[in-house]
Structures
1.
Amino acid sequence: MGQQSLIYSFVARGTVVLAEYTEFTGNFTSIASQCLQKLPATNNKFTYNCDGHTFNYLVDNGFTYCVVAVEAVGRQVPIAFLERIKEDFTSRYGGGKAATAVANSLNKEFGSKLKEHMQYCVDHPEEISKLAKVKAQVSEVKGVMMENIEKVRPCDYLYVQNKKTFI
């Protein structure tokens, strides 16, 4: 994976960018900002493709985490990166400073963290890939368990109803 695979990242509260990082120049910052303005406020992950790049967003509890990546890198590394920065950002600022911070006021503190996480994800794609596979397996098992619980619930309810009728 090349040095340029993750090229830009930011953390925003609503549409206000609190911290960002890039070593490159280009119009990707304005495209990422335009996409941010149009994102639904619901907690979810979004990816947009444009000119060989992906614009990946993770929206969670009023905060948006973004990374622009080269399309060839796929989705696993950018999504893993977003999860990492969300966890780091929330542990540092959750319920505090980030709730009232003004635009770009966290650049000095968190911009370097964005750089560190970008570098880590670029340098350890095999670890990110393994972690993504494990998370996918856990998610699959969780889904199967939820299905099984849903299958059992109506039977329990019917049993209670039947028991009630016999009493």
Note: The chain is about 55% helix and 25% strand.
2.
Amino acid sequence: MAEAYIVGAVRTPVGTRKGALAAVHPADLGAHVLKELMERTGVDPSAVEDVVMGCVTQAGPQALDLARTAWLSAGLPESVPGVTIDRQCGSSQQAVHFAAQGVMSGTQDLVVASGVENMGMVPMGANAQFALDNGLPLYGEGWTERYGTQEISQFRGAQLMCEKWGFTREQLEEFSLESHRRAARALEAGYFDDQIAPLAGVTRDEGVRPDTTLEKMAALKPLREGWALTAAVASQVSVGAGALLIASERAVKQHNLTPLARIVQLSLVGDDPVYMLTAPIPATRIALEKAGLGIDDIDVTEINEAFAPVPMSWIQELGADPAKVNPNGGAIALGHPLGATGAILMTKLVNELHRTGGRYGLQTMCEGGGQANVTVIERV
């Protein structure tokens, strides 16, 4: 099987839902990173064979095949097609998988994997609102026969995880505080500077709260009475975009590219859709086994902090070193622009491996429907 390489990776800053980036049209957010990716890699954009873009809430300004409109909005060649995909929070990580699979199959040589989400302009769930507004069920008869009419939500899933693993509110808040500390340290040290393409006057991630404390977190109300969850231990509503260029060995030579990382393993797993957020655990086990690696071989892990119990349970079940997991903070501090997060985390992962000299990196995240992607890469 042919090899697939990451030869470029760039992202916007992750903005808050009321920050300057929230006023930027999603197609222009995507256009910004796509144009920057082409400029940084020096590739003739007409050589790109497809643009695969993740976006979760494909409604309003994020409808009409955002991948295509973003590419054209960037002034890039009309000859290059684009497709927009939705694997919930893992959408742009799946974009990386599709791009890499196209290259590894030998049918493509240069594919862009990207993701965009403006949660300030297009609220989460806006694409489901039509059903709610018109009295239509979100789930059909087959689903109801199998799972009943119980609540299916990320919030309930996260609370169920707290109960299953016995996590207390205090433990969740301690994890959250550490996420902010790590992110603040990374921002201060400039770890993200080279990977960010500033936009709308925003030059750095906006969500980090370096002055937060356990006392401030303890004053927040739980999401529901009796729950361990508060807003402080959940990912932030955000705005952002990211893009990577995936190349074959032939394209690397033809276009004189410098590989940043080699794709080692691409895995997908489904798990309980009611718990919803637990799939990264079995998915990681399968990915490591297929890659012939152990958890101790992984130098850096990026696991999306949708809610604190997701990485906390993953660390516990995998026996991972917490110091290697989200070393520069996660979505609790840095934000989670849904369909863009996969591309953003992969950009961070590649850069962190090069900064530290690590060999193997692993990325995973929980996804709606009880799914998870796992990507293992090797620094080149």
Note: Strands lie at 4-11, 15-16, 50-54, 82-85, 110-118, 238-248, 261-270, 298-303, 360-367, 371-379.
3.
Amino acid sequence: MQQTTLQVLGMVCNHCVKSVEDALNALGVSGCIDLKEGIVVVEHDTNKVSIEAMKDAIEYLGYDVV
């Protein structure tokens, strides 16, 4: 398992957090989201889910991943 930290811009409320959690859960990834800092920390199997796939799922929701 690899731990990855993503900076997500545009999350402003708990609904935003829930949306990002749901998108990551759909990929089989779970993580911890810090709304105040705009940080998503996930543990994932790089053989199953790439960082790009996670970024794409979050960006599809309208957030920016830097």
Note: The two ends are 22 Å apart (CA to CA).
